[in-house]
Amino acid sequence: MIIFIYAILVFLVLRFSVTLFNFLSNPKLNKYGRRFTDMVSVILAPLPGEDISVLLDSLKQQDYQNLEVIIKADDEDEQLLTDKAKGKYLLFLEPNMVVGNGLINNLVYRTKVFNLSLLHLIPTQQLNTAYEWCVVPIKEFIVLNMFPLRLMRLTSSPAFAMVNTGCMFFNAEDYRSNRSRERMETLLANGLLINNTEGANVQGRQLLQVFGNNSLAALIYLLLLIAGPIVMFIYFEPSFVALPIGLIFLTRVMISFLTNENPVVNVLLHPVQMTLLSWFLLKEICSKALQYRR
Fold first, then answer.
1. Among positive and negative, which fits the CA dihedral 75, 159, 28, 278?
2. Which UniProt key words apply to this protein (predicted)?
3. Of 69, 99, 183, 188, whose CB neighbour count within 10 A is largest?
């Protein structure tokens, strides 16, 4: 038991350290003054009947002029779609996004300066309902709690980028030559891209992708994240439990400031969010196991 307790404490300290690094390094897309004129192809792939009028209106209001917008037809192949795009850069956006003014110029700037093949943005969430407050922050919590985003440019692993594919900005040449994972970066959108209907889309499949679709890794994470603090509450004095509670509190506050969310609400809803995280992941793991047995 004592070994398990030590493992929990080490896990807490490591997660806190990653969150602190993200908080201090502030991995957000900055706003740059230099202007660019490279052609950017914005590719949209809405589902049949999905409303993209808000997204199109926000694109029309962009100060970046050299744009083309390509909307995928129901039966159109994505490869053919990208082949006919004229832009030096390809911007894939999900229909529920709202583009802030200056986004595209800042994407071009960042991609050029760091010679990126792919720049992935985690959008700022617009939380309107109690359900969204309970489920939407879960994905950002996992990513900012596990991955030091500023260092992710040093790896070609796509796992952390797959948590949310709402905005993917590619160098078109690298994308067509299948080199889009060679030099990639993930940043927070910093209010330049807003997701206003994400709550209903949270799925265990998306969360499991953070762990490289490795069910064992996800189970170990849940064991240390959920079962660990419960064991500590049962077997230790309140004064000893103050350490993990303090680290969890500071972690939630820092992540909330990074994602432009209300820290008080996230701290209060932390038990609910962690319960739902466990439910989503366990449900997806069980579903995968049943499919494998068949």
1. positive
2. Membrane, Transmembrane, Transmembrane helix
3. 99
Domain-wise residue ranges, the chain? 2-24+206-293, 27-201
Q: Which two tokens stand for residue 80?
A: 């053919």
Pairwise CA distance, residues 59 & 89, whole Å: 16
Per-block mean pLDDT, blocks of 10 residues, the chain (294 long): 79 94 95 90 88 91 90 80 89 92 94 92 89 89 91 65 72 84 86 74 74 87 83 70 86 96 95 92 88 70
The pLDDT of residue 208: 84
pLDDT score at 199: 45
In terms of DSSP H, where are the helices of 118-227?
130-135, 137-146, 172-176, 204-209, 215-222
Residue owning tokens 């529920």: 96
Fold of the domain spanning 27-201: Spore Coat Polysaccharide Biosynthesis Protein SpsA; Chain A (3.90.550)
Distance CA 193, CA 29 (A): 10
Q: Give the model's pLDDT for residue 254.
A: 97
With residue 98 as reference, give the H or E element that holds it.
strand 97-99
Q: What is the secondary structure of 112-128 as a DSSP string? A: HHTT-SEEEEEPEE---
Instruction: Please tell me the predicted confidence (pLDDT) of residue 141.
Output: 93
* Cα→Cα distances 154→29, 148, 225, 290, Å: 18, 11, 27, 36
d(CA 225, CA 207) in angstroms, rounded, equals 15
pTM as predicted: 0.87
User: Can you list the alpha helix ranges (DSSP code H) found in 26-77?
Assistant: 53-60
Q: Are 227 and 245 in contact (CB under 8 A)?
A: no
Question: How many angstroms separate the CA atoms of 99 and 62, rounded?
Answer: 8
User: In terms of Cα–Cα distance, which of 19, 21, 9, 29 is closest to 253?
Assistant: 19
